[in-house]
Amino acid sequence: MADYQGEKNLQKVALTAKEKSELFAEGIITVILLLLLNLSIMVLLQQAIVNNPQLSGGVWMIKNAITIGPNESHIWSWQNWFVILMGVADVLVVYWRLIRRYHQMQMWHVIGELHYIADGHLDHRINLRVNRDLQRVIDSVNTLVDSTVRSMEEERKIEKSKDELITNVSHDLRTPLTSIIGYLGLIEDNQYQTKEELTKYTHTAFVKAQQMKVLVEDLFEYTKVRQTSTPITKTTFDMEQMLDQLAASFELEANKKGMQINVTCNPAPLMMEADTEKLGRVFNNLIANALKYGKGGKQITLAAEKIGQEAIIKVSNDGQQIPSDSLNQLFDRFYRVEASRSQETGGTGLGLAITQSIVALHGGYIYADSTPELTSFVIHLPLKLGRRIDPQTAGAKSVKE
């Protein structure tokens, strides 16, 4: 979609043969009317001078009074000067009439362009060179159309996003719901032989119901943090202390997987402002992902550093590398690098989308970087809460530049 490009791309209004004929006729008619008016004035003045001796004497005195040049030469032929003045006035009138008519024709062309756009050709722009006032109107119209098109495109994206969300949620809910209905149906029809089978069926239905509950809770959290109006509870805290507490809370699970969690912070303490509850959700998601998906890894590192007015926090692990073509999509809702991950780990595919939205609410951004040696999620957060980033557009910075 090409926006209005300015003076260098403007085209002069091309008049049609009919319009040129109308403009020529306008000029001829105006000249004829002015000649008749001039002749009438000349005749009336001549008659007035002949019939009025006093006026004739006055004209004679004016002739004698008007002199030019160093020798004070008299101008006797006042008719010539009068004709010249009337000729100049006639030229100005003709020019005014023609330029006025031409501007009207320009307006008709602009109106035609507007009708063309209004008929649905929203990719069209008015690129005509016209008079200054009309040019300002055209610039405003082009800007308005650009804004309208952008709004329509955003609305389409939002609608498409909503449809995709409904489709994904329906798919992810249908799978466990089918299992729940199936096993409960077996119990309802008494299609089990032993108490162990009954326990197995009820346990499976319970596990599937828990999966549905996790998905619904994540979905609720996702939709809530996507709103720019979501309240932020500002708290001043020490980032080093928060990371230490997080490392301690995951220590048992990390030991079971043969992994260690290390914390580094520069400077220490690192004081900043944030909603600690929401930020805790961010780091919980990232550490949990490192434990779930960091296959073969031995170390998880939580590193915080103050640079300027920002705190840069990295959650890294030395596990399996994330494919480069998946890095751009990691923060998309319901995206999983491997389709089997949801079944293996019970993930909903919303964790990183929620993480990104919470970071955006704090005025920061997050991206992922992965090499064979290290996979890192890097978070940039302002030390003091200020302007928020719209979570709807936060994905623009989700990949390392």
Quick description:
It comes from Latilactobacillus curvatus JCM 1096 = DSM 20019. The chain has 401 residues and is α+β, with helices and mostly antiparallel strands.
Give a written overview of the molecule.
By secondary structure, the protein is of the alpha+beta class. The protein is built from eleven helices and eleven strands. It has helices spanning 17-51, 53-65, 78-118, 132-188, 195-225, 239-249, 251-256, 276-293, 324-327, 341-345, 351-361, and strands at 11-12, 67-68, 73-74, 128-129, 235-238, 260-266, 271-274, 299-307, 310-317, 365-370, 375-382. The strands form four sheets. It has a five-stranded mixed β-sheet with strand order 6-8-9-11-10. The protein has a two-stranded parallel sheet with strand order 1-4. The protein has a two-stranded antiparallel ribbon with strand order 2-3. Strand 8 (299-307) and strand 9 form a beta hairpin. Helix 1 (17-51) runs antiparallel to helix 3, helix 5 (195-225) packs parallel to helix 11 and helix 8 (276-293) packs antiparallel against helix 11. GO terms for molecular function: ATP binding; phosphorelay sensor kinase activity. Residues 168-385 form the Histidine kinase domain. Its main location: membrane.
